[in-house]
Model the fold of this input.
Amino acid sequence: MSDFDAIADAYIDMWNETDTDARKARIEQLFAPDGRYTDPLADVTGHDQIDAMINAVQQQFPGMHFTLVGPVDAHHRQARFGWALGPAGAGSLIDGFDVLERDDDGRVTLVLGFLDKVPSA
Done:
């Protein structure tokens, strides 16, 4: 397992963590203090904003679970990996992939999120 495999696993676990204090601890461990997350629906910076965004997603999709899809592709300081969001044991509601960059300490400095499959309106 590479460092990026461990980072991707920790990242998915962070998205699935519903206990506020535990999620904040995961964010602080994973992200640099000025870490940034951006996707078509959000652009946030810092631990508090990342936590608020994840909380909002969990409120919008209660009971849904993120899973890592496929291998983690990484080189230098960046990696990309696919993920899916849906009910446990069922098909996904949303599919996407994220590209992340880490610093020399192994903490995430940037996540660029992309949505491949979203529910129709």
Q: What stands out?
A: DSSP finds three helices and six strands in the chain. The radius of gyration is 13 Å.
